[in-house]
Records
---
Amino acid sequence: MGKYILKRIGYMLAVLVVLSFILFLIYNLVPNNRAYTDAKAEMTTQKTRLRNATAEEKEKMFEDLYVEYQRKYGTDTKNMVVKYLRWVGFMPNYYGEYSGLVQGDFGYSYEFKDDVIDVVKEPMKNTVFINIFATILALGITIPLGIVCAVKKGSKGDQVMQVVTIIGYSLPSFVTAILFVWIFCSLLGWFPPSGMKTPGSNYTGWKWFTDRMYYMALPLITMTFCSLGSMTRYVRASMIDALSLDCIRTARAKGVTEKAVIYSHAWRNALIPIVTLVVGWFLGIFGGSLMFENIFGINGMGKLMISSLRTQDFDVVVLLQLFYVAISLIGNLIIDIVYGLVDPRVRVSA
Amino acid sequence: MKKKNLFSRMCGWVRRAFFGGSRDLANSIDVEEVVTPIQQIIRNFLERRLAVGALCVVIGMFLLVFIGPLFMPRYYDSYTEVTQKNVAPTMSMMKVPSELKNDIKMIDSYGSFSVGLSNAGKVYVWGATQLGTTGIDIGEIPEAVLNDKIAYVAAGIDHIIAISETGKVYGWGSNKHGQYVTTDKEVLEMLEEAEESVSDEEAALLEEAGVSAAEESSTEGEEGAEGEEVAEAAEEAVEEVKEMDKSVSTGENIIPMPTELVTGTIDVANIKKLVCGYQCTAILMNDGKLYIWGNMNAYQNISSFVDKEGLVDIDFTLNYIVGLTEQGTSIFTGKRGLYDQYRSNINTSAKASKKFLNGRKITSIYATNNHLCGLLDDGSLFFAGNFPSDSVPMPKLHDGETIKQIGAGTYHYTALTSEGRVLSWGGSTLGQIDVPDTVNGKTDKVLVGSFQNYAVDANNALVDKWGLKGYLFGTDGYGADILQRIIQGGKMTMTIGAVAVIISTIIGIIVGCLSGYFGGAVDIILMRVAEIFAAIPFLPFALILSAIMAQMDISENEKIFILMAILGILTWTGLARMVRGQVLVARENEYVTAAKAMGVREGRIAFRHILPNIVSIIFVTLTLDFATCMLTESSLSYLGFGVTYPRPTWGNMLNGANNSTIIKNYWWQWVFTSIFLAVTCICINIVGDTLRDVMDPKSDRDK
């Protein structure tokens, strides 16, 4: 088992390297040049000193500054691999300093005038919070629903659920969101349409929590609703497969109660595919919550990413993107490990 | 066995006695018909009503979006129309109330609603009367107006001015920009109610959404020094009125309605013309006195007209007020070089005014939104201003035929000639110049609204009407018809979805087949590549790629193609894995062994022998992926990173619906698009799911 896990981790790191390299290449396509911007900024701060300088001198000075900054940021070479290694922090820059992702230097956000890592902290917290909350809510509803549908397969209720779930997963999430805003905010007036907290308020403790939940309620409801469709279908399908296993027939033949058959025999067998899907889906909603954060004005990673893309704050974008990649890879690793734990055959063949 | 009656039994006996019993025997044995798998699939599919219905809807959508555009030759992407912004779905824009039909005195309109006046002095309003930006329904005519006998009415973009026979001036509708001042309690209450329903914050958002014409016009040209002085004087006047009457809500840059009109009366017999512009109103008296008030931002040369005396005619274009002085030698605008190039028809070349007139006098002027026409004292017409290239020139008059009466709409003119012919020309985008033949010879008067025309006979009864009926799905924030944009947008969305799916399917099939058939090192490498692609978080990655693409200096079409490629390249992994799995299974089949034994090349076996056997599965994935790609494209465009305005897609058409006030007040701007998008995706998914079920021989659908 240990060997298997090591192998998966090694493999994950390899994929991470490849993906981050691809990301880096894309990042370099952007006509955004940190050294150039900083050199320009420095030139303007020294304007008064340079008042008497001729154009040529200015040019010369700018060139020097530009080269200096390029060396500092490690972009004084055309070699992509070297640039990449410096960016990650495995190779020193011109001055022999290591400053890359590994050293914790994630870049600088020009929009927020702050280190990227500080910019990203708060949104990341919010995103993780709503995603975990939405997951718990969604699982709490979909699993029982899926089981009931599978057990009563073909009944009127099941057929209705089939149609409802297909609608649920076909509806674009933003259409659902618009619909919910219309129903719950415009028509019923139950929830605020956007925001994180009552403007100007400074609550603490319990009051803070209730205020927060009041504002988070609609996004959470919408997110949960959007994931109901596909999850219920998955649970139902894998439960149906499990119910047609031979062991279930045997159990029934032995006279085990129907309840025990469903919840102890069948459910355990159905769990394997469901676990995979839950993990995969949990990762999916990190990307999906991007949409909701933008619609409901939640200060999360997705919103930050969109606004950074708009303002071309690419250091932030790359870090967020790396985070999404990392989440997805870790998720895959967890799936692999869980698979290996539950199903010995996987370990052997891998 | 069914019980037969005596007669048929007898027949059976007779038949068997002469022809033998083989036919009856064959009927009684239930022989199972042999069908091909495809036939079986089709049969099973047709048994499911829901899926068949969904398939019909999908086909219908396809036909709509791919054939529909052929029926909209006048459509173009960047179409905007200031006066038709945010119009609610209605087809009643030309629906003259039946009480008015036989007693028409005058009809006027500027934007989305029309106001009519009967000879009995009754006012009627029809069209899209809900003014979205203010929460006011202009169709609610105040009691005082209904009870009074009205002599003149005119409509602006969001207000109506009526003058009673006793000389009282009424106004209703929006007065946010000083369109009118009123002391009428009912109107004030109405305004207050509207104010409450739309809070300040919301109103600001709505204002933003509907790009105000004032902003557009204020960017053009600069004001003369002379004008500024007058403006200052006007501002002082504003202050005065504000103190006096608090019903004017905002004091920014407005010329207030003259106080003698608010509290006193006007000499009705002496009125020459009442005309409303965007948010302005002008009353011209026979003695040349001019009352003018309204939003200064909408008309930059309005200050030249304040206290202007000696005019004989006045009208509004979109950005300028045009007047005619007694001399009749030129058009007065208060600005030099504006509308001083005249032409005899829309498509002929222009000449300087003096040279063109050559001693003739202008007797009256008729202004559309961006050009105007005038009647000369010799009975001929001239045109001035900018004519869009798609304007239809004026038809030739017969010899000796003169223009008897003429009216100007938003972009077109309609005229009645001395021979009784009715002619329409000018802008044709909304069908406003399609004159029906029935009106020729019967018409005594033509009334021209913004995009509507009404022919009236000598008894003041309506002969016929033509022009814009309305919008089935309303209009968006740019004034474009949402139905047309839905059709065009659907074409774009579906094309992108289809091409993306084709790209992803081709990659998926090739990778899957190679990987599954050859196995070993090829398999390992290809599957690792697939896993790398699968590990890419889809939406964020697509976002970053389209954001970078947006910065590149490439044409819009190339951008759209790259978008398709991005979607295709990011979605092939699922199919590749499935194809690989299927190939792995199929590889062990006897026919593959046989093919190998016969010495068929490996590539041929993979693509010609194995692939056809897994085509059904590919087909199902293709269907489901199509819906996914459409959704992804819509999501990207919704966020503003896919296809961008003016090109419509179902995603970016919903772009505006991102705050609750627009969602609530302009519901038609998202409801219809959402329905089209959702219904299409749902139906495609239902078809795909059902296909998967019926293709799977193991699926126990009878259970």
---
Amino acid sequence: MNPYLLVDFGSTYTKLTAVDLEGEYIIGTAKAPTTVETNVLDGYDRAFKYLINDHPEIKEISGISACSSAAGGLKMAAIGLVEELTVEAAKRACLGAGAIVKKIYSHHMTKHEARELSEADIDIVLLAGGTNGGNKECILHNARKLKEINIDVPVIIAGNKDATDEIEELFEGTGIEYVIVKNVMPQLKKLNVKEAKFAIRKIFIEKIIEAKGIKKAEEKIGEIIMPTPEAVLQAAELLSEGFEDEEGYGELIVVDIGGATTDVHTIGEGFPKRTEVILKGLEEPFAKRTVEGDLGMRYSANALLGNVSNYEFKKYFEEDDKCNHNIEASLERRAKNVDFIPETKDEEEFDKAIAKICCDISMSRHVGHVEVVHTPLGNMYYQTGKDLSGIRYVIGTGGVLINNKEAKKILKQVNKKSNKILELRPTNPSILLDKSYILSGMGLLSQKYPKLALKLMKQYLM
Amino acid sequence: MNTVVIGVIGADVHAVGNKIIDYVLTEQGFNVVNIGVLSSQEDFINAAIETDAKAILVSSLYGHGEMDCRFFKEKCEEAGLGHVKLYVGGNIVVGKQDFGEVEKRFKTMGFDRVYPPGQKIEHALCDLREDLGT
């Protein structure tokens, strides 16, 4: 036996997964509440004790990898020029690196916006704007605004390269921490987020972990190598593409319904499938992640009625559900008491309805849309976003979802719907569940042992 | 290097002329941002903002250009692109109309240069050099 440990410092739980590198199986998993306020290692030690209690056969650990979304995760601000272009590119870089985009600014930042940014609770700023050789006046203006507020979090500059010298001069000697990387949109509608994502991860490892009080953990377990959502995205990418002779599952979707947000990851090109469809808008990343801050089971439960009306909400209840749910009160209860666990059948049914809404609406926002244009040559179609109609697998993860008895039914909400005919949703994918909560762990494991991580995912996702 | 945005407006899918314009202008030293066919006014404007374009060249071959180009100039003004030169060319109106009249109408709409059907791109190139002072 050669046990390897994967650690995920989550916002609520610290989760451990022990993998046997030799026997190629998952020995066991354990979790304990995350303890960022005191010493993050307390929670880890407790989880580790549970793990050893359950699996006394673990004598020695050969290695550990860890990721974290504790203390609110990685929070970023994205700044660009045009909303549909560099702002969107900047946003995608942040999301792809596993961050939550808390603040978004387009065009010239005003004094008011700059003040708002300086007071916001964010960890990193991503400053973009202009294609290479394009507009540089706007990014310079916004850089000056960042200087004016003496921005005290690291700034990643990923805009028009023609402006970088001047920004560097501007920031020199001010004490502002900054790094210059390649433009997130070097040419019109061309997305290039690789370097920016890498810079985000580097700052996360070097600075953010410390600021969030998770650094202490490193004494014991070594470097925390990425934010949890990035680990999930990497696991999904591996599962889709395969590794060497171990085949992958092809294009797939991962839906993570959490307490505060619903994350959707898709791996796949999503190109139009018919010749009369023309692709519009910014290029889509192969591995795409979107995060919906207003769709969640607990923290953001109150925001749900901003997305669906009371009448629409009722449509998500099962037909045989005879309970007369008080929607407002039930949502309020969950938002106020975020540790709420359903006890009665009615409470479970209500949770199921929330999960369905989160799943359905997050899909609507993630998936590509078509629009009909009537031309003298007949009907043509614009496609914005990814065509996911050919997706073969949908994988569900997240505490509330995988503990629900009817999780697969909830995930069916991603499917094509008669009332959302213009959305390019999956038609009839196979649905898998991350029952043992291993996705982030497998993302970590894939850094060193991709083939094993892939094999385990194929074995344990069902 | 001067950047120009080119594209075919509206529900028009005629791509050949668009490719010729792209080829000639690139060869003549312009940085050409080609947004292609089926482009909306907003597509032209957003592209021009991000790339800091000096001129927008709108093509239309299917006869509905006049409708597609309405309020284009006003939108440019609104987006802070009042200084950007606006060209239009192709079969820009329905049927055979007196081109002098057509040109007048489009100039009133705020276009700087208006070209009749069959116009060579070299002609527009001279105008472009003159307008941009290169």
---
Amino acid sequence: MKARLPCLLALALAARMLDAQVVLYSLNGIAPSPLGSVYGYGQVAAGDSMIVRFRALNTGTAPVTITCLSVKNTTGAGFSIVNSSSTPFVVAAGQPMDFFVGFSATAITSYAATLQVGTGTATDACGGTIESAILLATVVPAPILSVAAPCTGPDANKNITFGRIPQGTQETCTLSILNPFPQALTVSPLLVTGAAFATTSGNAVTIAAGQSVTFTIKFSPAAGSAYSGTLTVGTRTYALVGTGFSSPLSALVWNFDSTKIASGEQHTLSLQLSAPASATATGSVTLAFAPSIKTVTDDATVRFVATSTRIASFAVNAGATAITLNAQPNIVFSTGTTAGTLTFTVDSGIYGLSGSPSTSVMTAAAPIALASSAATSRANVLDVVISGFDNTYSIGGMSFAFVDRSGAAIASIPADFSTDFQTFFKGQTGSSFLMRASFPVTGDVSQVGGVTVMLNNSAGVITTPSLKFP
Amino acid sequence: MKLLLFSMLSVSAWAQIETPQIGVMLCLNGRARPVAGVAAAAVVGIPWFDGAVISLACSVQGCLAKTESALFTPAGMVADVPSGAAIIALDATSPGAAYVYFVSSGALARWTGSQLVPLDFAPGGDVLSLRAVAGGFEYAVECDGEIWIGSKSLGVANSILLLDDGGALLANEGQVRLVRSDGSELDFAVTGVGGFLRMSDQYVQVITDSGMWALDLEPGHEQMFLLPGESQ
């Protein structure tokens, strides 16, 4: 007799698959298991719902049309199809049709239903070949869990939240389990899992009718990270979530090698924290540039020299105040050749930062900066070659004061090359330029001994040294 | 006469404007790359070619470079030469020409612009730098721990570059010293100098163990600045 029951079940299972083009499975996650004649939902807490995913797999070589998909409650009223494709539904050869059957009830008793999947006719959908299974569930008394501040929950998804606390500290929350039933209730198991969560409660507790018990869970994040765990209260499982964080880095101390910063320069930036870092932290520092010249949108020569970009890494060790930039004690940046504002911003990521993460320095509009100047002569042409930059982009007006070989003034000649410069700047990165101003001469060019050039821009006037013609 | 001369000047003056060129630098990976812009706001261009250059000198008249086994110009002139580093002195009086000293062999040759002509040379010490002068060349050698140009001692230095105008750059003990031909001097604080490279007539690349600097030689504008992307 003992041996016959498994045999009968085996026979029944075989019969369900015999000549059947549709075979039923239940799924635990994504792993399908062949569905026997009986499927148990187990114990379900009163008022809770439990949903199981099933699969009707077409194992044949031809399509099959599923016309019947039903759940008939035979004991109580707890089972129902909660999500499926509508029937009739054509399942291609080798393909599945998944559907979900849920259970929920409040009365403390046992429940049963029959699941049917058939391929009958339009007039008799659940006739013909039918695959079926009996679904069973038992509703058990469910205690009511409540959580006191500073924790919150449980929410609709059974999450209990411990919030964010500094790493290395701990937070204890008190939880209560109420037995609302008129008889004593044993809650088992009562378990907590998760590396950062601990409880001093036992593995089970018996609660008198209408009474409650309290217990605590301690959250102790060891590092700046998100933590999770579980709390199992009888048939219910709750998620425990909390986050540990490092104390934010203290305020930044920005150190520039000079308080006077102008265009066409390289300067050194070093960074410190106003107090030792509570943890080793890394991040980045970025450099942004906002030109003060309306016609200019950017200047690519504003950047960190070492990286040739506008971003560099930063790091600080736990207990230290000195910050390394690009793995060095400081970093050099170029101010470019455009007047504007350079803004440095530290991104410390998850470590956080006290105070402002940014600081700015401004390069003011200035007279034209000369890099070189020279005067040369060709047959009947005098050339004046000047290189430099104009961070206002307004260069153009200039005056050339020529002298003879004895140094006596010959004439001062104004010129306006504004249009030439504006055309040139349109295709440029920055305002650096090399200008060759040429003067055709009738007569003996050797009479001209030198020239001094005054160059104007919107910020002032600059004069070259006295340039000698060879 | 003056009125006639300068009435023509004022009426017909024109300007050509272009991006200033700083010169050509040698990157840490041996690529020769043009550098444009102005000091402290330089932009590095794409390498000449996909190969390593070990010696280089440039002026307004052009560049001469040496790979491990060839001497070449950007214009495409190539000559097979001894392996290893070379000291190149461009000859401003003869565009395209240069003196080339091959360190490993101790041989000196004149580059005419298209071929190498060997020269007899017995320097009497380790040649550290070379420059073309009217009618020939002069060189700096290390002898008895000091650097000498002919019979003149420049003292102790780790590196030297002879400048065309008669001056010199000397590196020693955390500084680079610019010695003008008139005897005036300017010092720049920089450590770990391993050598100099002539980027152009106006700029010299200062190679250090922590990065690449450029020195602006223009009188009145002398300054050092870091070259982009090549420094710590």
---
Amino acid sequence: MLPVWFAITLLAFTLGAVAPGDPAEAIYYQTFGEPPTDQAALDRLREEIGLNDPFLLRYGRWTYRALSGDLGTSYRTGSPVWSQLTSRLWATLMLAIGGVMVALVIALPLGVLAAVRQDSPLDLTARLFSLIGAAIPSYWLAYLLILVFAVHLHWLPVAGSGSWLHLVLPCTTLGLSGVALLSRLLRSSMLEAMGNEYMRVARSKGLPERRVILVHALRNALIPLVTVMGTMLGFLLSGAIVIETVFAWPGLGRMMIEAISFRDYPVIQGFVLFAGTVFVLVNLVVDVSYTWIDPRIRLAGGPEDRRR
Amino acid sequence: MMDSPSKFRGRRFPRLLRRNRAAIVGLVIVTVMVGIGVLGPMLAPYDPDTQFRGSRLQSPGPEFLLGTDNLGRDLLSRLLHGARLSIGMAALATVFIVAIAVFVGAVAGYVGGLADDLAMRVVDTILAFPGIILALAIVGVLGPGLENVIVSLVLVAWAGYARLVRGLVLETREKPFVESALAVGCSRTRILLRHIVPNMISPVIVLGSLEMGTLILALAGLNFLGLGVQPPTAEWGSMLNQGRLFFQSQPQLMIYPGAMISVTVLGFNLLGDGIRDLIDPRYSG
């Protein structure tokens, strides 16, 4: 995990270091409010902020500062990148939590029913649904939903933020795009769980079918879902970027898109480092939780298996 | 992932494909869409960039079958022209991805040692990110533009395949024919290029093309965000981007480009799933 994290810091730093444009000029412009005319002053500034130092030294300094929460200042707004990240985080988190809830509410019953009534019309419909869901761009789905629920029915606001009503459409869009993945996975893990011995035991004890399915099969089928938490998070974060753009939602994704169009490299670097770190942490938690959920798995074999 | 390239045999292929109805639907969609991509400019009633000034934001009608956009350009013509770019860019990216992956994967798997460790560390790092986020960051550094979008997607997507190729190489190099080649005195380079790579290349190419759907989606997404093709170029993702300001009065401006993307991606995914089932029946379900 740690080597991967260091590679991520190296990557994030390199992105900024190879970027065209001169950071000194950007900082000069930001401090004095005008393009630099005095070459000597620019050179002094460059020396002062250490741009002439060797790559590894600059990388080390950048990482050291990043570890203490200093990711530099945004070229565009002049405010610290770290505070920009944290202030936007909440909006994206709300979107992600809402999206996960929508996805679970639809995917859980869909996956369970599809597995219990395998090859029934319902199962086939669910499979068709998830196939189509995987092919639809989430931003297009967002516009379709806006068209129906905001423009024609006037039930919900078109875009923006402010009330919880503003959350409904973005969360639904984000959630719907995750349903395909989740329900498909749940269906297959339900099918696997239902083929187990303990199912026969539960039935022969005379437990009602509903209980057998919901308690014995579903509980065991949920375990593999933990393994896709990392994938799911990546999915949500990538989904959030476009969906925030569509709905003018003030989250991390929109911050990133704005930073790209303004060539605001410190923000891009900060976002990459942040996203990468969250990812490494989530995967670590997932790895550790395997053993916690299922003690039969030993951590020792873990990393080796993952490499293949 | 895939451990039995030998199951993939040219002769069995068409017959098995015929049995899978979903894959047939996919094949038909893909054929039609690629056909549009090739013939699109000939089928289009108008030039995609001609602005009919008197007829801006027209609803569908006899003159403009699907209506016009805010600059008075014919939507149908733009859709037909857009197919070439939307599908072609993904195909181009696939070629680069497979080429890089085969090179890195083959060297890492066959040479082993430090080269292998280094390559796999790089792969691990790339795979530690959600693809789109890393691709966005790379576009952010390179700056918006069609070439840069393709470069960024290639730089992100090769990693997964390289790992796959490495696995296949590791497996193939233990095969008896490699041992006999070694015994008759072939050089290591010759063994890699003439014996190992040809024996695993077809599943690698097929698996690479499976991801066409994902690539089309990703490219359209980046174009939708305004990072790829620049106006006035007709491309489905950027058409959606331009149509979004007017979609409340003229919904067809976003409905049709989005529908084209969805149907194309669905086609490639269906076909891909079918082919994957053929290569490795364990994936069916």
